[in-house]
Write a structure and sequence with these properties.
heterodimer, A: alpha+beta, Ubiquitin-like (UB roll), DNA polymerase, domain 1, five-stranded mixed β-sheet, 5 strands, B: 760 residues, alpha+beta, Aldehyde Oxidoreductase, domain 3, Aldehyde Oxidoreductase, domain 4, 26% helix
């Protein structure tokens, strides 16, 4: 009989390290758990929203090693040793000061119902890290995978471009 | 105007802004209760069938499964208007109809359990088309509705509720006409407003007769009432609404979902969370009504409308919750854009074997207009009349009357909206771009441009009763008691702004209670465009009441008469002596609060209007239509919050709005009743990279009966657009189109470039 191997994975989420067992007991990461599920259900980080749960709406976007990832489309076990940032990790942990993108979204009322907002902000964060001075067209293309139904797009673009111009 | 008020008309931070941008806003999916189970619904794969047998024994034995409910064990709760279907039934009426409910310790276990339920069906013939369903030999969905036609009437709107538009003498009217136009138009693409957050809730019983509900809702007070009546008025319901991840009207239709969770929670004796998947959201949740009109209009050469007649056929799918209510409002709204002495417009609400249509932003009016306005344009074309001139001539002005949803005749006392229409036309450049009927504005190779215009109005700005409490605390803060849910419009913050203006109290010192109807006064919800006028007026009155009570309590200690007092920033002073101000608590004591009450009675005399101009570019080689530009023009009396207003007007595109003319369609396979567009790739929506230019022309002509002169317009932004797009595309390609959405295939077929297929 094959010896049962106890597996453990390590995730760094918003600077905090988590050691999680892979298994099916409460608190474990099941091999079939998506990162979105683990963040929300296991770690209680519900700022990451699940809209479609099939990679088509962008609501669950988080950063994995700085890159925007649809967390409903990646298994948690694939994220071993990775560095993950969620919407909860954007504000300064010590001072609570908001990220300039978050502040700009507030200043421009760049949301309506707000359900898609965390995902949009995370993609914006990755975009501005990679390209600090995108054109409006580049912002539109970067955000094209985000489903916003209230049509806050125009205010989102204003908010993002205001951050770009600040820099 | 801009500096008239301290808070109103200025951009202020939404009260919930920090929660939203930090992810701390708790939507229902983010909430967990101890011992909570997860619910799932086993759904019918057949559009119409009797359940011959159902065996749940294997599912019940699966470890982790707590409860399985079929029609045999389900509570006898009946839903619909009139009451017509059980929560679970021995008959299924559409692909996706609920067959069994499961509660288990995880969603995965519940999903696995679904596969262990054996159901044997006796298949029945199904019907999908509204006119097929009305034929004598059509498959019958409900025994009590011959020809699948529902009885008219919606008691909520009162005993004389509007059921049709019939007045004057249409035969005489047609005799007076210079031209008569007749046609059939359909708006039957049943778009799904598709909020990003699917419908869902947690239900938990505290003993046999107390039910707690946390839900994604547009109106928890209404949820409470609906559940209360459905459960036979024996249950005390606490319905808590949190932030709502979009609704667009649809979450007023969550009753079946609520009852599914409540039944499971009752049987399991534990809280049950039931949140629909996106696939369920697309396949079984609320769609727009299917709307088809065979209509006829008579018109004089000067654009005077002499007669209107027609059959308005409304496909409500398998279930009807409020469709007759939508018919009533739609019938009222259509009269607002066309003054005509002779009408005979007869609606019929019909059931078919598909997912239910019902409450969606636009509430009957958009569905009616999208099919009806094009028939009017047939007559305009015959007399070569510019549609802008037609609308300006025919919309309801102060002094004109109309029948509203309650069946009463109301006389308009709105402002004159023709100024807004003219300003919109100027900004759009209508005069330069309008080239006549079926004529493109510009042709460049295979690209043809065309323009269109639409108009919508709604007298719901003052609909339904509103009640309000505003409490002043001795520390110079105020509490607004409200069961409004924030579903995107910023309405909770806008209420606070109106209260702030009355009390001259900074917004940071105004708080708002959670949307809990057991604590707060009656609240119909932010339906229609009632937030600013109806709800706002109640809160303004409550704030004023609190202010007067504060003055009465303070007069003695300030040695002045109450009418001589003034308050600002939580301080109170004798008018003219602002330097001698004292804190509220100095006058009323630290151990007293002051509660103001306000009430608003329904008033249907104040229709708002929105005119939408669009320009499209059609590629006649590929059939693709691009929406190039949109101009919305309206008058709001007084802007409350500029960015929130702009956001709402920009919202004209999505959620079954203008895009229902071009992209949005729930595709039903009429061979087997399956919905084909059940993922977010197959269901089309507009992305960031496809945004048209939008300009919003917003006038501020004060409405004298509102303390700040304001009126709401939020709901009506989506309705005028689709028919404007239909007009614009027809003009661009020089041929009329008769249905939505205008897909490339439909354009090419209309142009004769491809052969007729199954395109509707």
């Amino acid at each position: 009989m094959k010896k049962k191997e106890i597996q453990c994975i390590s995730l760094t989420v918003n600077g905090q390290q988590y050691e999680l067992y892979v298994g099916n007991r409460p608190g474990d990461v099941s091999p079939s758990d998506t990162l979105a599920h683990t963040l929300r259900e296991t770690l209680g980080l519900t700022g990451t929203k699940i809209g479609c749960d099939e990679g088509a709406c962008g609501a669950c976007t988080v950063l994995v090693d700085g890159k925007p990832v649809l967390s409903c489309m990646i298994l948690t076990v694939e994220c071993d040793s990775r560095n993950i940032t969620t919407i909860e990790g954007l504000a300064d942990a010590k001072t609570g000061e908001l990220d300039p993108i978050q502040q700009s979204f507030i200043d421009h009322t760049a949301f309506q119902c707000g359900f898609c907002t965390p995902g949009i902000i995370m993609t914006t964060k990755a975009l501005l890290h990679e390209n600090p001075s995108p054109t409006e067209q580049e912002v539109k293309e970067a955000l094209a995978g985000h489903f916003c139904r209230c049509i806050s797009h125009y205010h989102v673009l204003e908010a993002v471009m205001a951050v770009v111009e600040e820099k | 105007m801009a500096t008239k008020y301290r808070f109103l008309g200025k951009a202020t931070r939404r009260k919930d802004a920090v929660e939203i941008v930090t992810g701390r806003a708790k939507f229902v999916g983010d909430i967990k209760l101890p011992y909570m189970l997860y619910g799932k619904v086993l759904r019918s794969p057949h559009p119409h069938a009797n359940i011959k047998s159902i065996d749940t024994s294997k599912a019940k034995k699966l470890p982790g499964v707590h409860t399985v409910i079929t029609h045999k064990e389900a509570p006898e709760w009946k839903l619909g208007n009139p009451s017509h279907r059980h929560l679970l039934d021995s008959k299924v009426r559409f692909v996706g109809d609920a067959v069994a409910l499961i509660a288990a310790e995880t969603e995965e276990i519940a999903t696995e359990a679904m596969e262990l339920i054996d159901v044997e069906y006796e298949l029945l013939p199904a019907v999908y088309d509204v006119e097929e369903a009305m034929k004598p030999n059509a498959p019958q969905l409900y025994d009590q509705f011959p020809r699948n036609t529902l009885p008219p009437g919606f008691r909520w709107w009162g005993p004389r509720n509007l059921q049709e538009v019939v007045m004057g003498d249409v035969e005489e009217g047609f005799k007076e006409a210079d031209v008569i136009a007749e046609g059939t138009y359909t708006y039957e693409n049943i778009p799904n407003p598709l909020p990003p957050e699917p419908p869902g809730l947690i239900a938990a019983w505290e003993g046999p007769n107390t039910l707690n509900i946390w839900s994604s809702s547009q109106a928890p007070s209404m949820d409470k009432l609906q559940i209360y009546y459905t459960m036979g008025r024996t249950v005390d319901i606490r319905a808590l609404g949190g932030p709502c991840g979009g609704s667009y009207g649809t979450k007023y239709m969550s009753l079946p979902v609520f009852l599914q969770a409540a039944a499971l929670a009752k049987a399991a004796g534990k809280p049950v969370k039931l949140c629909y998947t996106k696939k369920e959201h697309l396949a079984v949740f609320t769609l727009r009504l299917g709307s088809r009109i065979h209509g006829k209009v008579g018109m004089k050469k000067d654009g005077t409308v002499t007669a209107i007649s027609g059959d308005w056929l409304i496909n409500t799918g398998h279930y009807c919750q409020a469709t007759q209510g939508q018919v009533a409002v739609g019938c009222g709204e259509v009269q607002l854009v066309v003054r005509c002495p002779n009408w005979n417009l007869k609606p019929k609400v019909v059931c078919t074997n598909r997912c239910a249509s019902g409450i969606v932003r636009g509430y009957g009016g958009q569905e009616l207009k999208c099919a009806f306005l094009p028939i009017l344009t047939l007559a305009m074309e015959k007399i070569d009349l510019d549609p802008l001139e037609f609308f300006k001539k025919n919309y309801v002005r102060p002094g004109d009357g109309y029948y509203w949803r309650d069946g009463n005749w109301w006389v308009c006392r709105s402002v004159d909206y023709s100024r807004a229409m003219e300003e919109g036309a100027r900004v759009f450049g209508w005069q330069e771009r309008w080239k006549g009927w079926l004529k493109p504005t510009a042709v460049n190779g295979t690209k043809r441009r065309g323009v269109g215009v639409g108009l919508h109005g709604n007298a719901d700005t003052g609909e339904d009763t509103a009640e309000a409490y505003v409490r002043l605390d001795p520390d110079g803060t105020a509490m607004v008691y409200s069961s409004l849910c924030e579903h995107g419009t910023g309405q909770r913050s806008s209420l606070c702004k109106m209260v702030a203006e009355v009390l001259q109290l900074p917004l940071e010192r105004i708080f708002i209670t959670p949307a809990d109807p057991s604590v707060n006064p009656y609240e119909f919800g932010s339906a229609g465009s009632r937030g600013t006028y109806a709800i706002g007026s109640a809160y303004i009155a409550a704030a004023e009441d609190a202010r007067q009570k504060l003055f009465a309590l303070s007069a003695q200690s300030l040695n002045a008469k109450p009418e001589d007092l003034e308050t600002e920033d939580g301080m109170i002073y004798v008018k003219g002596k602002p330097d001698e101000r004292v804190q509220w608590r100095r006058c009323i004591g630290f151990n007293r609060t002051v509660l103001g009450y306000g009430r608003f009675e329904p008033d249907f005399t104040l229709p708002n209007f929105m005119m939408t101009f669009v320009e499209v570019e059609v590629d006649v080689e590929t059939g693709k239509v691009e929406l190039a530009s949109v101009v919305n023009s309206t008058d709001v009396g007084q802007i409350i919050d500029p960015p929130s207003l702009k956001n709402q007007l920009n919202g004209c595109l999505g959620a079954a709005g203008i895009d229902s003319a071009l992209l949005e369609e729930s595709v039903l396979d009429i061979n087997n009743g399956h919905m084909l567009s059940t993922n977010m790739i197959d269901y089309k929506w507009r992305t960031f990279s496809e945004l048209p230019t939008i300009k919003n022309v917003i006038l501020e002509t004060p409405f004298s009966s509102h303390r700040f002169g304001a009126i709401g317009v939020g709901e009506i932004t989506t309705a005028p657009g689709p028919s404007a797009v239909l007009m614009a595309v027809s003009n661009a390609i020089g041929t009329r189109l008769y249905s939505y959405p205008i897909t490339p295939e439909k354009v090419l077929m209309t142009l004769g470039r491809i052969k007729r297929s199954n395109v509707k």
